[in-house]
Amino acid sequence: xxxxxxxxxxxxxxxxxxxxxxxxxxxxxxxxxxxxxxxxxxxxxxxxxxxxxxxxxxxxxxxxxxxxxxxxxxxxxxxxxxxxxxxxxxxxxxxxxxxxxxxxxxxxxxxxxxxxxxxxxxxxxxxxxxxxxxxxxxxxxxxxxxxxxxxxxxxxxxxxxxxxxxxxxxxxxxxxxxxxxxxxxxxxxxxxxxxx
Amino acid sequence: xxxxxxxxxxxxxxxxxxxxxxxxxxxxxxxxxxxxxxxxxxxxxxxxxxxxxxxxxxxxxxxxxxxxxxxxxxxxxxxxxxxxxxxxxxxxxxxxxxxxxxxxxxxxxxxxxxxxxxxxxxxxxxxxxxxxxxxxxxxxxxxxxxxxxxxxxxxxxxxxxxxxxxxxxxxx
Lengths: 196, 172
Hints:
CATH superfamily of the domain at 5-104 in chain B: NADH:ubiquinone oxidoreductase Nqo5 subunit
Number of helices of chain A: 6
Order of helices and strands of chain A: EEHEHEHEHEHH
CATH class of the domain at 5-104 in chain B: Alpha Beta
Radius of gyration of chain A: 19 Å
Number of strands of chain B: 7
Order of helices and strands of chain B: HEEHEEEEHE
Low-confidence stretches of chain B: none
Strand order of the largest sheet of chain A: 3-4-5-6
Shape of chain A: flat
Largest sheet of chain A: 4 strands, parallel
Structural class of chain A: alpha/beta
CATH topology of the domain at 5-104 in chain B: Beta Polymerase, domain 2
CATH architecture of the domain at 5-104 in chain B: 2-Layer Sandwich
Structural class of chain B: alpha/beta
Shape of chain B: elongated
Mean pLDDT of chain A: 91
Helix content of chain B: 10-25%
Strand order of the largest sheet of chain B: 1-2-5-4-3
Number of helices of chain B: 3
Oligomer: heterodimer
Number of strands of chain A: 6
Strand content of chain B: 25-35%
Strand content of chain A: 5-15%
């Protein structure tokens, strides 16, 4: 005897004329032929809706990322249409999976090759803290070698959780100050990781 | 007549006499041991003999027995006769103070990385190995993790909650 359906009982019928969502305009002054707003708002808007991620997929979280990138959960909706595998061309380093201590320097090398502005998303328990592998060979969290912006917990996190982490990265990018990357605090942060 | 464990045992005893010992058959797989000085002679004999033909090295690993003084580290060779589909296991025991074993790389090319892994995790020194250095662990590691005296967990963590790991007490 099956249970009665609780969710999605009145599915939304797609309206082909009204199914494109547009990003909202940032706050500012507008007038005849001009629109004045903060530069960081416009730049943030552009950057956050066209993130090119670098999928550093190592293990099981990589499979969940593949599901996120596939058509059902579709990370391309959020602007991540082009996955790059060259760090020189990517904005977001998505570390998905267990990183061994032997892999740590390699991950750091990949991070160093990324151009500013760059963000890091640690997906899954192993990337965030070593996960269930509390052992001599696993790096207990990638924040021991690179600075991380958003952590997505889960083992593995569902695609919705990965998308939530991605949206938080988008929030961070949208609100970032243009002077952050040259500020003393950022340099000090990188200094704690040994990055000049 | 098909090759059987009895035949293999008879041929080994005929060739090596009392140098081979410890014959057992756990789950039907013949297992025996020999002093570590003879390991290459035994492997070569098993390889060259026309009837035995154990010419495939399936696995080379080690076991640490902390209780048996003088014989703590066992290097285990799993050999396979591909023609007759027979497997045997050959063990050499060595002292943990001086874990030198002759390398099988001249005979089996597969032994190269397998011996590096055994060195990496147990510290068995393979005499004559072309490139004996760590393969899976970080190069700077100064201990051999799979020996039973070393803990499994990473000792550099300072935020472990002992209660969650059923050890009682507070975190470090």
